[in-house]
Amino acid sequence: MIAGIELGGTKTVVAIGNPDGKLIEEFRYPTTHPKDTLTIAVEWIRQRGLPVSLGVGAFGPVMLAGRGDDYGRMLATPKPGWEGFSISAFLRTAFPDCRVVVETDVNAATLAESRCGAARGLDDVVYITIGTGIGAGILAGGRLVHGALHPEFGHLKVPRSPVDEFAGLCPFHGDCLEGLASGPAIAGRWGVDASALAPEHPAWEIQAWYLAHGVLALAAITAPSRVVIGGGVAQLRGLHERVQAEFVRLSAGYFLQAQTPDFIVPPALGQNAGIFGALLLAGGTDL
Ligand code: ADP
Ligand code: ZN
Protein backbone atom coordinates (compact mmCIF):
# COMPACT_ATOMS: atom_id res chain seq x y z
CA MET A 1 0.00 0.00 0.00
CA ILE A 2 1.07 3.57 -0.67
CA ALA A 3 -0.41 6.81 0.62
CA GLY A 4 -0.71 10.44 -0.44
CA ILE A 5 -1.46 13.69 1.35
CA GLU A 6 -2.47 16.94 -0.31
CA LEU A 7 -1.94 19.75 2.19
CA GLY A 8 -3.88 22.82 1.11
CA GLY A 9 -4.19 26.19 2.79
CA THR A 10 -7.83 25.48 3.65
CA LYS A 11 -8.36 21.75 3.18
CA THR A 12 -6.34 18.56 3.36
CA VAL A 13 -6.88 15.35 1.41
CA VAL A 14 -5.42 12.01 2.48
CA ALA A 15 -5.62 8.90 0.32
CA ILE A 16 -4.34 5.38 -0.01
CA GLY A 17 -3.54 3.81 -3.34
CA ASN A 18 -2.04 0.73 -4.95
CA PRO A 19 1.70 0.68 -5.78
CA ASP A 20 1.30 2.15 -9.28
CA GLY A 21 -0.39 5.24 -7.88
CA LYS A 22 -4.11 4.45 -8.41
CA LEU A 23 -6.38 5.91 -5.74
CA ILE A 24 -8.27 3.38 -3.60
CA GLU A 25 -9.90 5.57 -0.93
CA GLU A 26 -9.66 9.19 0.18
CA PHE A 27 -10.74 11.47 3.03
CA ARG A 28 -11.04 15.30 3.02
CA TYR A 29 -10.98 17.59 6.07
CA PRO A 30 -10.06 21.20 6.99
CA THR A 31 -6.40 22.18 7.44
CA THR A 32 -5.71 23.46 10.98
CA HIS A 33 -2.51 23.45 13.06
CA PRO A 34 0.21 21.25 11.53
CA LYS A 35 0.38 18.52 14.22
CA ASP A 36 -3.42 18.17 14.39
CA THR A 37 -3.72 18.17 10.60
CA LEU A 38 -1.05 15.52 10.03
CA THR A 39 -2.15 13.40 13.02
CA ILE A 40 -5.57 13.01 11.41
CA ALA A 41 -3.90 11.88 8.17
CA VAL A 42 -1.55 9.47 9.97
CA GLU A 43 -4.37 7.88 12.02
CA TRP A 44 -6.56 7.55 8.92
CA ILE A 45 -3.75 5.83 7.00
CA ARG A 46 -2.85 3.55 9.97
CA GLN A 47 -6.42 2.28 10.14
CA ARG A 48 -5.90 0.98 6.60
CA GLY A 49 -2.40 -0.44 6.92
CA LEU A 50 1.26 0.61 6.82
CA PRO A 51 2.35 2.35 3.61
CA VAL A 52 5.72 1.58 2.03
CA SER A 53 5.79 5.01 0.45
CA LEU A 54 4.08 8.34 1.16
CA GLY A 55 3.83 11.32 -1.22
CA VAL A 56 2.94 14.82 -0.06
CA GLY A 57 1.87 17.82 -2.14
CA ALA A 58 2.07 20.81 0.20
CA PHE A 59 1.27 24.50 0.12
CA GLY A 60 4.39 26.59 0.46
CA PRO A 61 6.85 27.94 0.82
CA VAL A 62 8.47 24.64 1.72
CA MET A 63 12.14 23.61 1.56
CA LEU A 64 12.70 20.92 -1.06
CA ALA A 65 16.35 21.19 -2.02
CA GLY A 66 18.50 18.14 -1.24
CA ARG A 67 17.50 15.42 1.20
CA GLY A 68 18.99 16.99 4.38
CA ASP A 69 17.33 17.94 7.67
CA ASP A 70 15.65 20.93 6.06
CA TYR A 71 13.89 18.84 3.41
CA GLY A 72 10.13 19.21 3.80
CA ARG A 73 10.29 22.07 6.33
CA MET A 74 7.81 24.93 5.98
CA LEU A 75 9.35 28.37 5.57
CA ALA A 76 7.87 31.83 6.32
CA THR A 77 4.09 31.46 6.02
CA PRO A 78 1.32 33.50 7.62
CA LYS A 79 -0.58 30.27 8.37
CA PRO A 80 -0.52 29.96 12.20
CA GLY A 81 1.85 27.31 13.54
CA TRP A 82 3.23 26.16 10.20
CA GLU A 83 6.41 28.20 9.92
CA GLY A 84 9.44 26.01 10.69
CA PHE A 85 7.33 22.84 10.94
CA SER A 86 8.94 19.82 9.26
CA ILE A 87 6.37 17.78 7.36
CA SER A 88 8.91 15.09 6.47
CA ALA A 89 10.30 14.72 10.04
CA PHE A 90 6.77 14.34 11.43
CA LEU A 91 5.81 11.71 8.85
CA ARG A 92 9.10 9.81 9.14
CA THR A 93 8.54 9.54 12.89
CA ALA A 94 4.98 8.31 12.34
CA PHE A 95 6.02 5.79 9.65
CA PRO A 96 9.71 4.92 10.30
CA ASP A 97 10.10 2.40 7.47
CA CYS A 98 8.23 4.42 4.88
CA ARG A 99 9.76 6.47 2.04
CA VAL A 100 8.51 10.08 2.30
CA VAL A 101 8.50 12.37 -0.75
CA VAL A 102 7.49 16.02 -0.35
CA GLU A 103 6.63 18.31 -3.26
CA THR A 104 4.73 21.55 -3.76
CA ASP A 105 1.00 21.19 -4.31
CA VAL A 106 1.39 22.66 -7.80
CA ASN A 107 4.22 20.30 -8.74
CA ALA A 108 2.06 17.36 -7.61
CA ALA A 109 -0.79 18.66 -9.78
CA THR A 110 1.63 19.16 -12.69
CA LEU A 111 2.77 15.56 -12.39
CA ALA A 112 -0.81 14.26 -12.35
CA GLU A 113 -1.93 16.36 -15.33
CA SER A 114 1.14 15.23 -17.30
CA ARG A 115 0.60 11.53 -16.51
CA CYS A 116 -3.15 11.18 -16.77
CA GLY A 117 -4.71 14.58 -17.45
CA ALA A 118 -4.72 17.48 -19.92
CA ALA A 119 -0.98 17.16 -20.70
CA ARG A 120 -0.88 13.38 -20.81
CA GLY A 121 2.37 12.00 -22.18
CA LEU A 122 4.16 15.36 -22.34
CA ASP A 123 7.55 15.96 -20.66
CA ASP A 124 7.54 19.77 -20.71
CA VAL A 125 4.50 21.07 -18.93
CA VAL A 126 3.54 24.01 -16.76
CA TYR A 127 0.52 23.90 -14.45
CA ILE A 128 -0.71 27.28 -13.21
CA THR A 129 -3.31 27.68 -10.49
CA ILE A 130 -5.24 30.90 -10.03
CA GLY A 131 -7.26 30.99 -6.84
CA THR A 132 -6.64 32.73 -3.53
CA GLY A 133 -3.03 32.89 -4.70
CA ILE A 134 -1.17 32.17 -7.92
CA GLY A 135 1.41 29.42 -8.31
CA ALA A 136 2.94 27.23 -10.97
CA GLY A 137 4.42 23.76 -11.11
CA ILE A 138 7.01 23.05 -13.78
CA LEU A 139 7.88 19.73 -15.40
CA ALA A 140 10.97 20.14 -17.61
CA GLY A 141 12.43 17.22 -19.53
CA GLY A 142 10.22 14.90 -17.46
CA ARG A 143 11.50 16.21 -14.11
CA LEU A 144 9.77 18.47 -11.61
CA VAL A 145 11.67 21.73 -11.13
CA HIS A 146 12.62 22.75 -7.58
CA GLY A 147 15.57 25.07 -7.86
CA ALA A 148 17.10 26.21 -4.57
CA LEU A 149 13.61 26.71 -3.12
CA HIS A 150 10.88 26.10 -5.70
CA PRO A 151 9.46 28.31 -8.42
CA GLU A 152 7.45 31.31 -7.16
CA PHE A 153 5.62 32.17 -10.35
CA GLY A 154 2.94 34.17 -8.51
CA HIS A 155 5.52 36.75 -7.44
CA LEU A 156 6.71 37.48 -10.96
CA LYS A 157 6.72 41.17 -11.85
CA VAL A 158 4.55 41.76 -14.92
CA PRO A 159 4.01 44.89 -17.06
CA ARG A 160 0.96 46.88 -15.97
CA SER A 161 -2.09 46.80 -18.18
CA PRO A 162 -2.52 50.32 -19.60
CA VAL A 163 -6.17 50.32 -18.52
CA ASP A 164 -5.56 49.13 -14.95
CA GLU A 165 -5.00 51.43 -12.00
CA PHE A 166 -5.45 48.89 -9.21
CA ALA A 167 -2.49 49.11 -6.80
CA GLY A 168 -2.22 45.35 -6.29
CA LEU A 169 -2.45 43.52 -3.00
CA CYS A 170 0.58 41.29 -2.52
CA PRO A 171 1.82 42.05 1.03
CA PHE A 172 5.42 41.75 -0.22
CA HIS A 173 5.38 43.31 -3.71
CA GLY A 174 2.06 45.05 -4.24
CA ASP A 175 1.65 44.62 -7.98
CA CYS A 176 3.29 41.28 -8.73
CA LEU A 177 1.23 38.79 -10.78
CA GLU A 178 -0.51 37.42 -7.67
CA GLY A 179 -1.11 40.94 -6.40
CA LEU A 180 -2.84 41.83 -9.68
CA ALA A 181 -4.52 38.67 -10.93
CA SER A 182 -5.43 36.35 -8.01
CA GLY A 183 -9.08 35.92 -6.99
CA PRO A 184 -8.74 38.44 -4.13
CA ALA A 185 -7.03 40.92 -6.51
CA ILE A 186 -9.97 40.73 -8.94
CA ALA A 187 -12.40 41.20 -6.04
CA GLY A 188 -10.32 44.14 -4.76
CA ARG A 189 -10.26 45.83 -8.17
CA TRP A 190 -13.97 45.47 -8.98
CA GLY A 191 -15.57 45.31 -5.54
CA VAL A 192 -17.31 41.97 -6.26
CA ASP A 193 -16.15 38.37 -6.21
CA ALA A 194 -14.61 37.10 -9.46
CA SER A 195 -17.32 34.45 -9.74
CA ALA A 196 -19.96 37.23 -10.02
CA LEU A 197 -18.33 38.92 -13.06
CA ALA A 198 -19.95 38.07 -16.43
CA PRO A 199 -17.68 36.78 -19.22
CA GLU A 200 -18.08 40.10 -21.13
CA HIS A 201 -17.01 42.22 -18.14
CA PRO A 202 -13.84 44.31 -18.81
CA ALA A 203 -12.24 42.53 -15.84
CA TRP A 204 -11.39 39.59 -18.07
CA GLU A 205 -9.50 41.62 -20.65
CA ILE A 206 -7.20 42.83 -17.86
CA GLN A 207 -6.98 39.28 -16.47
CA ALA A 208 -5.99 37.88 -19.89
CA TRP A 209 -3.30 40.59 -20.20
CA TYR A 210 -1.66 39.64 -16.90
CA LEU A 211 -1.91 35.89 -17.37
CA ALA A 212 -0.57 36.07 -20.93
CA HIS A 213 2.45 38.04 -19.71
CA GLY A 214 3.01 35.32 -17.11
CA VAL A 215 2.74 32.59 -19.75
CA LEU A 216 5.11 34.52 -22.02
CA ALA A 217 7.75 34.53 -19.25
CA LEU A 218 7.28 30.79 -18.76
CA ALA A 219 7.51 30.14 -22.50
CA ALA A 220 10.68 32.22 -22.66
CA ILE A 221 12.35 30.49 -19.71
CA THR A 222 11.12 26.88 -19.45
CA ALA A 223 9.73 26.37 -23.00
CA PRO A 224 6.77 24.11 -22.14
CA SER A 225 4.79 22.38 -24.88
CA ARG A 226 1.56 22.82 -22.90
CA VAL A 227 0.30 25.13 -20.17
CA VAL A 228 -2.57 23.94 -17.99
CA ILE A 229 -4.41 26.72 -16.14
CA GLY A 230 -6.61 25.68 -13.21
CA GLY A 231 -7.87 27.02 -9.89
CA GLY A 232 -11.15 28.76 -9.07
CA VAL A 233 -10.62 31.81 -11.30
CA ALA A 234 -9.85 29.59 -14.33
CA GLN A 235 -13.42 28.32 -14.19
CA LEU A 236 -14.53 31.42 -16.08
CA ARG A 237 -15.89 30.34 -19.47
CA GLY A 238 -13.56 31.30 -22.33
CA LEU A 239 -10.64 32.41 -20.15
CA HIS A 240 -8.15 29.95 -21.67
CA GLU A 241 -8.97 31.07 -25.23
CA ARG A 242 -8.55 34.72 -24.24
CA VAL A 243 -5.20 34.10 -22.58
CA GLN A 244 -4.04 32.11 -25.61
CA ALA A 245 -5.12 34.92 -28.00
CA GLU A 246 -3.27 37.48 -25.89
CA PHE A 247 -0.20 35.22 -25.73
CA VAL A 248 -0.23 34.91 -29.53
CA ARG A 249 -0.35 38.72 -29.81
CA LEU A 250 2.51 39.17 -27.32
CA SER A 251 4.69 36.51 -28.92
CA ALA A 252 4.64 38.54 -32.18
CA GLY A 253 5.25 35.51 -34.35
CA TYR A 254 8.34 34.43 -32.44
CA PHE A 255 7.35 31.58 -30.14
CA LEU A 256 6.59 28.21 -31.68
CA GLN A 257 3.95 27.62 -28.99
CA ALA A 258 1.91 30.50 -30.41
CA GLN A 259 1.19 28.27 -33.43
CA THR A 260 -0.14 25.48 -31.22
CA PRO A 261 -3.93 25.81 -30.92
CA ASP A 262 -4.14 23.85 -27.65
CA PHE A 263 -1.08 25.35 -25.97
CA ILE A 264 -3.12 26.79 -23.06
CA VAL A 265 -5.78 24.39 -21.75
CA PRO A 266 -7.98 23.77 -18.69
CA PRO A 267 -7.10 20.89 -16.35
CA ALA A 268 -8.64 17.47 -16.96
CA LEU A 269 -8.43 16.21 -13.36
CA GLY A 270 -10.15 19.15 -11.66
CA GLN A 271 -10.05 18.97 -7.87
CA ASN A 272 -8.27 15.60 -7.98
CA ALA A 273 -4.98 16.67 -9.56
CA GLY A 274 -3.24 17.35 -6.22
CA ILE A 275 -4.06 14.06 -4.52
CA PHE A 276 -3.47 12.02 -7.71
CA GLY A 277 -0.08 13.71 -7.94
CA ALA A 278 0.74 12.91 -4.30
CA LEU A 279 0.00 9.23 -5.00
CA LEU A 280 2.10 9.28 -8.18
CA LEU A 281 4.99 10.71 -6.13
CA ALA A 282 4.55 7.88 -3.63
CA GLY A 283 4.26 5.39 -6.48
CA GLY A 284 7.98 5.54 -6.96
CA THR A 285 8.08 7.93 -9.89
CA ASP A 286 11.74 8.91 -9.98
CA LEU A 287 11.72 12.69 -10.16
P1 ADP B 1 -7.99 28.20 -3.20
O1 ADP B 1 -6.95 28.98 -3.91
O2 ADP B 1 -8.30 28.76 -1.84
O3 ADP B 1 -7.74 26.73 -3.20
P2 ADP B 1 -9.82 28.26 -5.47
O4 ADP B 1 -8.78 27.70 -6.39
O5 ADP B 1 -11.15 27.58 -5.45
O6 ADP B 1 -9.38 28.38 -3.98
O7 ADP B 1 -10.03 29.77 -5.91
C1 ADP B 1 -10.88 30.64 -5.22
C2 ADP B 1 -11.10 31.88 -6.09
O8 ADP B 1 -11.75 31.49 -7.30
C3 ADP B 1 -12.00 32.92 -5.45
O9 ADP B 1 -11.28 34.15 -5.42
C4 ADP B 1 -13.21 33.01 -6.38
O10 ADP B 1 -13.57 34.36 -6.56
C5 ADP B 1 -12.72 32.45 -7.68
N1 ADP B 1 -13.79 31.75 -8.42
C6 ADP B 1 -14.53 30.71 -8.00
N2 ADP B 1 -15.41 30.34 -8.97
C7 ADP B 1 -15.22 31.16 -10.01
C8 ADP B 1 -15.80 31.28 -11.32
N3 ADP B 1 -16.78 30.48 -11.72
N4 ADP B 1 -15.33 32.25 -12.14
C9 ADP B 1 -14.34 33.05 -11.74
N5 ADP B 1 -13.75 33.00 -10.54
C10 ADP B 1 -14.18 32.07 -9.67
ZN1 ZN C 1 4.24 39.11 -4.56
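^ zinc ion complex. Residues 8-10, 131-132, 183-184, 193-195, 231-233, 235-236 surround adenosine-5'-diphosphate (ligand 1) (CB under 6 Å). The beta strands are 2-7, 11-17, 23-30, 53-58, 99-104, 125-130, 134-140, 143-144, 226-230, 264-265.
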